[in-house]
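Our example pasted here:


***
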Amino acid sequence: MLHIINKSPFASNALDTCLRMAQAGHAVLLIEDAVYAATQGNATTERMRQAGTKLSLFVLQPDLDARGMTAKLQDGITPVDYAGFVDLVEKYPTSQSWL
């Protein structure tokens, strides 16, 4: 399953809820303001590191770039472009959007 999160982890509990519900082998894609969860040095850094031990973690590169956060991307999270987003949707037959 592909979990897609678009809300900032500092304004919504969508990330925490997703990480509790996601199962090993699932993937998480951070888009829009959720990309802040993919950056180093904030309250989500350790949660994302731990999540990466059982989940595949991705971030939408154009959204990361638009927020000036590219240089702060933490290890273990793979940036994807729009074509990569489509590839993830094709790879995972089901998806869950966390709004």
